[in-house]
Amino acid sequence: MTSPDLNQAADMVRAAGRLAVLTGAGISAESGLATFRGAGGLWAGQRIEDVATPQAFARDPQQVWRFYNARRAGLATVRPNPGHVALVALEDRLGPSFTLVTQNVDGLHQAAGSRNVLEIHGSIRRVRCTACHARSERPTETLSEMPTCTTCQGLLRPDVVWFGEMLPLDIWARAELAVQDCDCFLVIGTSAFVYPAAGLIMTARDQGARVIEINLDETDASRRVALSLRGPSGVILPELLRLL
Ligand code: BJW
Ligand code: ZN
């Protein structure tokens, strides 16, 4: 099934020398992971803005670790969906002219086979010591509610970016450069509520890129984009790819 909008999107993608992509929690929804906002959001009864903060961790690290441990355990059984897989195929076609920027911390792009992923909000599969700042990969093991560093016994935290924290500067710089330099920008499965990630949409638009949104619903970004494709990314992305 094709629509005029999908054909137009395919034209824009085909014409793009350089393509950048921004993904959010919505691309992983069809893998069974909850999104942050809206019905069935992640932290029952509480807003993510109130728990994903350094203040919440300082106040009650066990409660924050319970939240992240539950999500880490959930990752053991989830698999990438056709949306993730379609982005691998786009990277295969475009090579270094393709940049994938993700707000997601779930690692599903890499699990699908994407090679060059800019994780601007970190990774739930990694931990970081609050004392010596050493990072380590802990992709699958079960962690306690007060996990400690094997080197210095400091309290570990998830290696993710909470509200009020800086994004990893080198990764963010690469994301900004790619968006400043792209001809077409695909914005997939994000509410465009959280900055500075949402600001990339204006960066792309202001430098003349064609911005295409793929989302189930209208978002804060919808009125700023050239084209909105409404529907599940796990269906739309493979269809788009088929038209290229
Ligand atoms: C589908 C679908 C399907 C569903 N197919 N679509 C004003 C006041 C105070 C602060 C600020 C302010 N203005 C800006 C700020 C800064 C703040 C911010 O943005 N706050 C907002 C509340 C306004 N930002 C920050 O603090 C950032 N740092 C920063 O700015 O540094 C500079 C600074 C330093 C010091 C002081 C101040 C500034 C850091 C932001 C960190 C965000 N971290 C989180 C948690 C990561 C770890 C974890 O996962 O636990 O990142 S919050 C959470 O939101 C997570 C996500 O990456 C992020 C974005 O969410 P996303 O991906 O868009 O998900 P949803 O659920 O919102 O949307 C899903 C979408 O999918 C929906 O649209 C659905 O319709 C769609 N969908 N199924 C297609 N099948
Ligand atoms: Zn340490």
Largest sheet composition? 6 strands, parallel
* DSSP, total strands: 9
Provide the domain count.
Answer: 2
| Average of the residue pLDDT scores | 94
Count of discrete alpha- or pi-helical segments spanning 4 or more residues: 10
Estimate the strand proportion.
15-25%
Report the C-alpha radius of gyration, rounded.
18 Å
Q: List each distinct ligand once.
A: ligand BJW, zinc ion
Give the C-level CATH assignment of the largest domain.
Alpha Beta
Neighbour order of strands in the largest sheet: 3-2-1-7-8-9
Structural class from helices and strands? Answer: alpha/beta
Architecture (CATH level 2) name of the largest domain:
3-Layer(aba) Sandwich
Helix content: 25-40%
Amino- and carboxy-terminal Cα gap: 14 Å
Q: Spans of 5+ residues with little confidence (pLDDT < 50)? A: none
**C-alpha geometry:** elongated
What is the string of helix and strand elements?
HEHHHHHEHEEEEHEHEEH
Find the CATH topology of the largest domain.
Rossmann fold
Specify the CATH homologous superfamily of the largest domain.
TPP-binding domain
What structural keywords apply?
Rossmann fold, six-stranded parallel sheet, 2 domains, three-stranded antiparallel sheet, SIR2/SIRT2 'Small Domain', binds zinc ion, 244 residues
Summarize this, please?
This protein has 244 residues and is α/β, with parallel strands linked by helices.
What does this entry look like structurally?
The chain is an alpha/beta fold. It folds into 2 domains: 4-33 and 80-121 and 167-243, 3-Layer(aba) Sandwich (Rossmann fold), CATH 3.40.50; 34-77 and 126-160, SIR2/SIRT2 'Small Domain', CATH 3.30.1600.10. Helix content is 37%, strand content 18%. It has 10 helices and 9 strands. The protein has helices at 4-15, 26-29, 48-51, 54-59, 61-75, 82-94, 108-112, 169-180, 199-206, 233-243, and strands at 19-23, 98-102, 117-119, 122-129, 135-137, 156-160, 184-188, 210-215, 227-230. The strands form 2 sheets. The chain has a 6-stranded parallel β-sheet with strand order 3-2-1-7-8-9, with helices on both faces. Helix 9 links the parallel strand 7 (184-188) and strand 8. Helix 1 crosses helix 10 (233-243) and helix 6 (82-94) runs parallel beside helix 10 (233-243). Bound molecules: ligand BJW and zinc ion.
